[in-house]
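Ticket closed. Logging final result for Aldo/keto reductase.
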Amino acid sequence: MKYRRLGKTEMNVSVIGLGTWQFGGEWGQQFTQNEVDAILDKGQELGINLIDTAECYGDHLSESFIGDYINRRKREDWIIATKFGHHFHERFTRTDVFGADEVLKQLDASLKALKTDYIDLYQFHSGPDAVFDNDALWTLLDKQVQAGKVRHLGTSIGSNDNVHQTDAASKVNSEVIQVVYNRLDRVPENRVFPSCERQDLGVLARVPLASGYLSGKYKPGAVFDTTDVRHRHDPESTRRKLEEVEHIRQTEVPEGVNMAEWALAWCLKHPAVSAVIPGCKNPAQVESNAAAAELVEG
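Final structure:
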């Protein structure tokens, strides 16, 4: 495993992290604690130290799985990032909750679920600019940092061209930007990454495998069933993506190199990117993701 400084937080994170949206049950699989334990144990064995989760991956369900695991391990071995701003109702149904008082309740609920007294990185979760530009919210969050409940603040931008929230990061003491970035979606390179570099912000690249399109598993013509989140994607967009992926496979991925590993390493070649946070359904996928670090220059 390789490690990088997460911007001005000065935390050293593994370049491969563990994304945990799947633990909330919206990827068509309901996880058990034993399955989560096996995934996180494999991650630690391979040198991964970064877990990214959120309050709305299930109703604090993903956090609860992680908390149960962490409670039986060494808390200091992990950098835990979670998020705030949404209330989970049912599969793919959420409402926004960004008021300062409500966010404080969410923070306490996250701390309880994670069975910890501090969160390493607490992230504004893909909210609109109107609720981001709320001094009361950031004043409340600064107080939580001062109280030791939160070590660092971050912003997970919903649009990967949201330069408004990125440019305002230093003003609100947000030290990390989380953004969708992958070989099929390079939009952050234009404005977001330059802003991050100017401010010395850490960058977490989410959806680095483009919702699995860059996993190497799918050929043009692939069809996703109704239990798969990709079934919700526009069919014409899916067709174009699969054709582009096949072109990338033939023209950019070196012979003999696993496409998913190549795609993760591709993200990490950009100097702004600190770590990628792919999801994983089992220990084998964790192992494949971690192997991408071997393709990354130190």
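The domain at 3-211+259-295 is CATH 3.20.20.100 (TIM Barrel). No further action required.
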